[in-house]
Amino acid sequence: MEGSLNSVVSIVEGHGExxxxxxxxxxxxxxxxPEIHVDVQPPIRVKKDRFLNREEEFDRYLRLxxxxxxxxGWVVILLDxxxxxxxAHGPGILARARTVLPxxxxxxxxxxxxxxxxxxxxxxxxxxxxxxxxGAHDLRMDPEQPRDAKGWLRxxxxxxxxxxxxxxxAFVARMDLQQAYDRxxxxxxxxxxxxxxxxxxxxx
Length: 204
What we know:
There is one protein chain. The protein is an alpha/beta fold and 204 residues long. The chain has 10 helices and 5 strands. It has helices spanning 17-32, 48-53, 55-69, 86-100, 117-121, 123-126, 149-155, 164-174, 177-183, 185-202; strands spanning 7-12, 39-40, 44-45, 74-80, 105-111. Strands 1, 2, 3, 4 and 5 form a 5-stranded parallel sheet that branches. Strand 4 (74-80), helix 4 and strand 5 form a beta-alpha-beta unit. Helix 1 (17-32) packs parallel to helix 8 and helix 9 crosses helix 10 (185-202). The longest helix has 18 residues, at 185-202. The chain is globular, with a radius of gyration of 17 Å. The mean pLDDT is 93.
């Protein structure tokens, strides 16, 4: 049902996230708003630096997402924050996006520091999955602190390497969303945006 009120179109930067993020959004839908059917459409993948720093690319991809979502849909931009502060940089990106799509619902979520930080937040639920070995000290750390969250996972995966396109969807399917919510501020931001968007529909 393209362009419906419950349509979600995302913009992502990673190959793995083209599969994993829609899967995560569907899990959030079942968790936060199970009474509402949400049409999660395939994401649009961009190169982060070019997307943010080339105005013509920023405008082009936003308009593409807006066209896919329709007037009543929702556009979600998901990027890794890397060394940037999500709270400092997210509002500026959102303001630019709203200038391009003034009549669309738009959200910006900067995963602090990487999408994989949310797996670290839910590490207790991923212990033993795909060779991941989690120690007690891993559960006490700030999951959004490691600069290289992918490397953090790789170091703890016994006898195998971390691969975005295979491990991201597998971890998304297994992770405890409440654990990620409790431990990762940027994941709470995504869930808060979801609640504001679809929670309002539940009362209509």
